[in-house]
Amino acid sequence: MFHKEKSIQIKNSASALYNNLSVLRIAPRRLTYFTVVHANVVNMVSASWDGLNYSHRQLQSKEPNVATSTSLIMQAAFCVLPSRELLVVTSQKGIQMYESDGSIMVYWHALDTPETPTAQAVFARGIAAVSENYVCVGVSSGAILVFDVPSKGSNITLSEVLEEHKESITDIAAECSGSQVLLAVANLVTVDDGGSLCVWKSGEEFQLLNKIAGLDISCSSVKLWKGTVVAGYGSGQIRIYEAVTGILQSEINAHARWIYSLDIAPFSGLLLSAAEDSFVRVWHLSVTPETNSVEVAHLHNECVTDTQICGAKFCDGDGYAFAVTGYDLSEIIRYTQT
Amino acid sequence: MSSRTLPLLFINLGGEMLYILDQRLRAQNIPADKAKKVMNDIITTMFNKKFLEELFKPQELYSKKALRTVFDRLAHASIMRLNQASMDKLYDLMTMAFKYQVLLCPRPKDILLVSFNHMDAIKDFVKDTPSILSQVDETYQQLIEMYTPLSNGEFQLIRQTLLIFFQDMHIRVSIFLKDKVQNSNGRFGLPTSGPVPHGTQVPGLIRIFSCTGEEKTRLQFNNGGNYTSAIREGSFEIFGDRVTKLGTNMYSVSRPVETHMSGTSKSSAQHTKVNTAPNPLAKEELNMLARLMGGLEVQKAGSSDTAFRVNLFATDEEEEEALITRPDELSYGIINIQATKDQQVSAELTKIMGEFTDSGHQSPSSSSKGDDLLAMMDDL
């Protein structure tokens, strides 16, 4: 169903972090950007669609104007808003927002880091763009920071802090089906280390619509599509819930190890899951909101030999191609449909 | 990232170090009483109360260079001496072994079981010496107190922190190559067969539920591997069957310890560059290191007739050869003063190291060793 393509070499190997691959397709310029995190550096590659041109850039995590401070990066992700695209980088010290090509940092938000380290680690993790103008970022304390992003310029402000989770945030996802009907209801899901799921509706004041208690199994990756939450867990299970009601619709014993990344191709309903067990699996998801029913079919397996996978993303909205990163691997492996 | 990683890193690396030294002492036919003294001295230093107190404080992981400095100190806490080539090889083996164990742990929490395997073996080394035994027992308590309440997510953060520390290390270890757990390119084999971790189901089942919670459909899929159900969970108590073999002693007199230096991947060189910019041993880290080493009670360095040298290689010639041919990107740098570009930093560190090698040196004030070091550094 899929075959392996030529890999893209990156300057450093990928670190073992959840959701460690972000992809941005720039159709007008026939380019795709990829970002992969290595310790305190974000490796960015811009790849032309004809496969002939690759350019690289590295971003370091540090406070502006402070020469020596470095901190480990937890995640880098592209945020696509109607008016602009940003690259958001979260680390132990704070949150950086860049223009999507990584050329200029437009915003820096410092986390409250204590003078001497505490037992509880401090970092930001979990990134999503939601609605017209919000970027949400999770924090190790369980808080969700909501940033208001203007259509251009650097006048980004912290609009709200949502305090509902008690454990470190692991991932955040916005409704990606593009359906205006659904976006009017629930358009954001946040998950944490204890496996708790919160479903929200964005706005000047975000509204908590539902909270699904965790079973003490960390949820490392989540997606929201057609009003359906798809969540990947440390136990290797994928669970599918109806967002607004919290009803469990499906449970898949998907992987033999901790799941590190999930992705959905919104136009086709293809689902991608990747784990420490070296497998990437492709599924097909169909959702019928009227009947609250879900169908899941397993389509394909790819085994990346001897590699603990840490990132897997579709490269386009149909799921025609996907890319994969693995711990200690200095390449982005690509697959396309045959 | 996780501020609780250092104790696990230290204890597991220390455990591997003891396995290797024990094997070399026997292979070199060192008299039993001398060998025992070496092991006891190192273990006593490792589990020194003040040292462990510093170790268990919440803190970020040290750089590879800083940690190597601590282990250098530890390896020389007895009458045994190691040349640089042997120390390099010892450290390579220790780190690759623990990297392997961390990678292969089925669940992040199993790193604690690996640590207990090391602790169990250390306990066995000192079972005839009650004073050291009680230190070891106390450390078990500290480990249990600190780590058993942690959630799986917090253990995964610890694991991710350790994996960043071990990133891009692909030194080939002969014993791993022979057992086929490591490939000739230095990467570890990750099997897609065997029992799934405790708490995980064998992949292959899709269940669909109705809105009332009843199972509507059940579908099977091919998982592409050869998995079996989880086996019983290991014990997280002071005594117990740990179940996992990771962290147990894989060396014996008949299985020698060798590493291959040639053909290591280019990426390790690139990684070293990222790590050492801008200053490999920033003042902050120097302070932390000083506090930690302040707790390392060092024995009087033995006189020349009791001290003896241990060689990690088969012959002295091999050891010399290894020192000359070691690739630059794999040098740890801290001991070899010439290798450190920053003369200011190396001067500071020489002073600190000097503090320790003066046998029986008493500081003018009666404050603790840690305070002395900090005061000394303030004078620089």
What tags apply to this protein structure?
heterodimer; A: 338 residues; mainly beta; five-stranded antiparallel β-sheet; four-stranded antiparallel β-sheet; 29 strands; 1% helix; B: 380 residues; mainly alpha; two-stranded parallel sheet; two-stranded antiparallel ribbon; 8 strands; globular; disordered C terminus; WD40_repeat_dom_sf (chain A); WDR54_beta_prop (chain A)
Structure overview:
The complex is a heterodimer of chains A (338) and B (380). Chain A has 338 residues and is mainly beta. Chain A is 1% helix and 55% strand. Chain A contains 1 helix and 29 strands. In chain A, strands 1, 2, 27, 28 and 29 form a 5-stranded antiparallel beta sheet that branches. Chain A has a 4-stranded antiparallel beta sheet with strand order 3-4-5-6, with no helix packed on it. Chain A starts with a strand and ends with a strand. Chain B is mainly alpha-helical and 380 residues long. Chain B has 14 helices and 8 strands. In chain B, the strands form 4 sheets. Chain B has a two-stranded parallel sheet with strand order 1-8. In chain B, helix 1 runs antiparallel to helix 2. At the A-B interface, strand 22 and strand 26 of A face helix 8, strand 4 and helix 10 of B.
